[in-house]
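Proteins fold reproducibly. Take a sample protein:
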Amino acid sequence: MSSSAERVQNYSTETSTVPFLKKEKKAVTIFGLPLIWFFVMTGLTLVSMYTGNLPGGMLGSLLVMMVLGELFGWIGDNTPVLKTYLGGGAILAIFGAAYMVYAGFIPDSTVTMINGFMKDGGFLNFYIAALITGSILGMNKKILIKVGLKYFLPIFGAVIGAMAVAGLFGALVGFSLTDAVLVITMPIMGGGMGAGAVPMSQIYSELMGNDPSYYISMLVPALALGNVFAIILASMLNILGKKVPSLTGNGQLLKGFEYKEEKSTFDIQKMGIGLMAAIIFFTVGTLLASFIPLHAYALMIIIVAIAKIADVIPRSILDGANQWYKFVAKNWTLALLFGIGIAYTDLNTVLQALTLQYIITVLGVVIGAVIGAGLLGKLVGFYPIESAITAGLCMANMGGTGDVAVLSSSKRMELMPFAQISSRLGGAIILLLAGLIIPLLI
């Protein structure tokens, strides 16, 4: 039998080593699944896809988008340079998908199916409707009131900054002011394809002649390349915020007003209510857009914000919309980004634009937007980084698709309502400016 002293010594030795014995490496997971199970699911998905046995429509599309989106997202978020400077999983999910289409790695039937799901099936609208409704209804009412018209000052700052810096960079590399502003700056700041480049080509055609398709071929490369830089700079602004905390509200736009989200009990039925609320608000926005000359997203934002400020929405809907938004953002963001890469990103267009002069001028647009929005945002009491991301980069990306990528890259998805204000109402402002500026420059 051991002595008391030996027992004490043994006990001390055992207890001192217990913490070390308990230290285990955290298991590596993708989408919350052990690697083996995730790769089994990935293998089954790929076999089904390459043998032409994927389920049709939403089932097959969502399966491919979730599995490959999560895979690319995990790789991007764990690859040092890509993770730190190039947007990590967000940008890899988009351009990984675009490259797979470009290289022919995804069967045409699957590409067609996902295109249909994203566009005709309305998955992008479905996702953004959830984010807009949930993020606004889950927001503190005082924030909406306090922000108000202040937000338009950094938007104008972004436009002015983009034109000024692009004009300067363009002049340095041999572009005329007309090319730098009309061909490059305006489409980048114009709210994406549907709400920006397409109607802008009509304006250009009416005021300068030529067919609208001629201008589309000029505008799209600027739009695509500007979107890439916006995603990259969003990631860099996130890094800057970590290094200089005084510049950021970590997802809070308004300075001196920190919002702590109220906790609500998770409820599956409430999520169903939130789903219905998101669809109803989007439907009302679409209905109003049929006779009010604004995009459905813009009208939806206005309606949801008014309903929130007026305190007419029952608590069950507020909680449900917020919970549904969190579910959608947590589970489908990378799937959506992968779908964006397939349905909305043409690598041929991006590659054709990659001349040094063009790249420098496009970079000037995005940098100018960041500087202008950040400075004027600070002037009205916003955090410069959040202002630069929402009023700057979300003006300089590809609209709704770009908003998701930029906010995902900057780790600030809660800023979606302000991003949509920039993309939709800001885009409408750009179309108006295009009609005013073109006669002055031609």
